[in-house]
Every structure is written in C-alpha cells, then in structure tokens.
Specification:
The chain has nine helices and twelve strands. The chain has 292 residues and is an alpha/beta fold.
Length: 292
C-alpha cells in the first residue's frame, strides 16, 4: 500500500439515499452514522408544501448530494439545457454539495424509463464528453458520471473500462464509483472485477455507491437496489479503500425496505470498513522518526 496524497471531497463518511418510504422513520429518530444523504433531483424539483418543507428540514440537518436520472448523456436528442438550469437552481436553493449522473441514456424523442448502454466507441466518447462539458459549463460545477450496469453492448469497439476512462479524460469530469455495478457486469460479461477496479482513475473518484441486486440466473444478475449487499460486493469496496484510500460511500436502497435499524447495519458496515482503512492509510502516511 503506497502513501496516498490527501484529497478533498464534497462530503465525507457514510451516507444513505433519502427515499420517501423512509421519511417517517428518519424524522422520528435520525440515526447516527448517516453523514450525508442523496436524492434524485427529478424527484424533488418543484415540490412544495408540506413535503417540500420536510425535504428542506433534512437538507438543513445533513449535507446532501444528488444523483440524476434523466439527463440522458448519451441520448441522440439535444441536451435538455432547460432541465440543466432547473437542476442548477435546485442545487443552489438547497445548498446541495454535488451532482452526479449515469454514463448512459434514457431518452430520444421521449423518455424510455430505463438506463440504456452507450455504445463503447470513439465517436460516443467524443459525443458524450462534449455533453458532459456543456453540463458542467451550465452548472458552473464539476460533475461525476457513474459506471453503470448494462446487459448488452451494441456496436462495441472497445472494452468498457477503456470507454469509461476515455470519457472521464475527454470530459475532464469525476467518477461516481459503483462497486455493485462492477460486480454485476463482471458476472454478466465475464471479467475480473478486481482487475477492472484497479484500472479506474483514483484521482477522479468523487464518491461511491454500494447496493444489492437480484440473481436472475447463475450467469445473469440484475441491478435492482432492492436487496441486501452481498459479501463479494463488500469485498470490492474493501479492496477499493485499500487501493485508493477512503472516500465517501453511500448505501443505495430503492424498494423492499427493511426497518431502518436493519438498513443501518449496512451503513455501519461501510463505516467500519472506512475506519479500518483510514487507520491503515494514516499509519502509512506517518513519516518515520529519525534515528540519531
């Protein structure tokens, strides 16, 4: 393990996605161990009244980041700059620390209500990167794009890892690292998840997602965010901290919610892994005393 330089993040620690099904329990007894929260801006832009006040109360309690659903970076349709302006106002109004999106597309002439894979081609690299740069220009912020799960690779001309790294470099944006998506893709497309992980650029990691999935068959996993995180995914997160140092990490859960105290056990697993590796990185970064 090499000495890791200090890096600044928009949030720190372990986080939990804020979902409306969790509002009552979170308001009743906000749990220790949740250092930040994340929402999809599409679910809250323009929401007022009682629900809007409840949301603002959470944003005043802990730092927030956002993970978009509909920017559709790979879409053949023109970039929806009006929507990007709405996102900018939302980020400003609620003091949101950061904005990320999926490295995928979900629309053309209308919304497809699913995340579709962008072809792994040089042309797509240039196209998507130019759209990311335009989003950053409008938002006046850097953004992160997430490595996504995918089930087919139409028009593929390069490996997934080469495509992701090329987009990050060409766009000069950050990476939202999703370790569950790496695991899902490694099974579905038959590659080594640890090799993939260590090929990602440490300096571009903004934060991380960890989540559960559904085993459709022995060789087919579906990314659902509706189940517990499994050990091989925790192992990937553990390895990521070993390789790259400790970065903010959020538990994604979108449905099939257990009681909050059960859900928090996974948040605490994140925290425990972070503490384990923070201590090791701190020790590695401490200069040896001179012997006279």
């Amino acid at each position: 393990m090499d000495t890791k330089p200090q890096k600044s993040y928009s949030v720190t620690g372990s986080g939990l996605g804020l979902r409306r099904d969790l509002l009552d329990e979170l308001e009743e007894n906000f749990p220790a161990g949740v250092d930040f929260m994340e929402v999809a801006p599409e679910n809250w832009i323009g929401i007022g009244g009682k629900l809007g006040k409840r949301f603002r109360a959470f944003t005043e309690q802990v730092p927030f980041i956002t993970h978009g659903l509909s920017l559709s970076l790979g879409s053949p349709a023109p970039l929806d700059e009006t929507f990007v302006q709405d996102v900018k106002k939302f980020l400003d109004d609620f003091n949101i620390r950061y904005y990320s999106e999926h490295l995928s597309y979900c629309s053309d002439s209308g919304h497809l209500y699913d995340l579709m894979p962008i072809p792994f081609t040089e042309e797509a690299v240039r196209y998507v990167a130019s759209r990311i740069r335009r989003v950053q220009e409008i938002l006046e912020r850097r953004i992160a794009v997430e490595n996504v799960s995918y089930y087919a690779a139409p028009g593929q001309e390069m490996d997934e890892i080469i495509f992701i790294n090329a987009v990050l470099e060409e766009a000069d944006c950050d990476l939202l690292l999703d370790v569950n998506n790496i695991y899902v893709n490694s099974v579905n497309h038959r590659y080594d998840p640890f090799d993939f992980l260590q090929s990602l650029p440490n300096e571009r990691i903004a934060y991380c997602h960890v989540a559960g999935h559904y085993n459709e068959a022995e060789d087919l996993i579906v990314d659902t965010h509706g189940a517990d995180v499994i050990d091989p995914v925790w192992d990937l997160l553990d390895r990521a901290y070993e390789l790259f140092g400790v970065f903010p990490t959020l538990l994604e859960r979108d449905f099939n919610f257990p009681p909050l105290n059960v859900l928090m056990k996974e948040v605490h697993t994140i925290r425990n892994l972070q503490n384990k590796w923070q201590e090791k990185w701190d020790t590695a970064s401490t200069p040896l005393a001179k012997v006279s």
